[in-house]
Amino acid sequence: MINPAYPQPRPDALASLLAGAGWELRPRLCVHPAWIPWLPSPLRHRAEAMAQGLAAGG
Questions:
Q1: How far, in Å, CA of 41 to CA of 7, rounded?
Q2: pLDDT, position 9
Q3: What does pTM read for this prediction?
Q4: Cα 25 from chain centroid (whole Å)
Q5: 1, 32, 48, 49: which has the highest count of C-beta atoms within 10 A?
Q6: DSSP states of 5-57 as a string?
Q7: How far apart are CA 43 and CA 36, in angstroms?
Q8: CA 23: distance to chain centroid?
Q9: How far from chain centre, in Å, is Cα 7?
């Protein structure tokens, strides 16, 4: 949950709502790709691996 004070839609409901407007709900990293090189080494390697997995559709 992002903020318990404000109800959030379920991912499937949000995906359906977005699809009706021509959008697609897709996972993404919480850090902008331009900032990945600035991360500490262990975190940077993990973020790079996760970005590659997302790009491959996994």
A1: 36
A2: 86
A3: 0.62
A4: 9
A5: 48
A6: TS----HHHHHHHHHHTT-------SS-GGGGGGS-HHHHHHHHHHHHHHHTT
A7: 9
A8: 15
A9: 19
Structure token pair of residue 9 = 């839609």
Residues 1-53: tens digit of each pLDDT:
678 898 888 999 999 999 999 999 888 898 999 999 999 999 999 999 999 99
The tokens for 49 are 């691996």
Tokens of 16: 């359906």
Length of the chain counted residue by residue: 58
Residue with the two structure tokens 């691996």? 49
Q: What is the pLDDT of residue 55?
A: 86
